[in-house]
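Sanity check

After download, print the first record. It should look like this:
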Amino acid sequence: MRCAKIDDLPHIRDIYDHYVHHSSITFDLTTPPIDSFAQKFESSHVFLLAEQGGVILGYAYANEHRYKAAYQWATESTIYLHKDHLNKKIGGPLYLALLDLLQHLGYLMVLAGITRPNPSSERFHERLGFKKIFSYEDIGYKKGQWHSVDWYRKDLMPPAAQPTRPKRLESLDTEILESILGAHSTSN
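Expected structure tokens:
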């Protein structure tokens, strides 16, 4: 497990491409161009990869939930695994590392949107302590039908009366970063 680099974006895009064309879990109808992935990468709080033998097995990242200053303590998480590496115990460690890093950076909560139906993602998030907080019914149309999105929330720490601004990943001590990634790394 490691932090993503800009050179990883073509591989990340390839993983995402499968979900664009073969599922409704993303509402993209076409695979975005690489510069769109670069913008997402640059604006993310944390962007992690699971890798084995130089092959990217999956990725998870967190970015702003909303773009107004009062929302800065809430972040939105995303995870995608390569289609050939589902159900191989890669997602849990990857997501847990993401959550730990976000907590160390000072984020108070993480939100995740899950397109219905997706019972495996719902169970995955619930096992990690996420709770369903609301739904957008029939909000996206893809593959000939309307889809609803359930939103889940996980609190990372209690809100402070006077919260300090979340830190950037670059400001995190290298030893802490390596410790968190190492603690959640598997044989991947």
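If your output differs, re-run the checksum step. Summary of this record's structure: Helices lie at 9-22, 34-43, 91-105, 119-127, 174-184.
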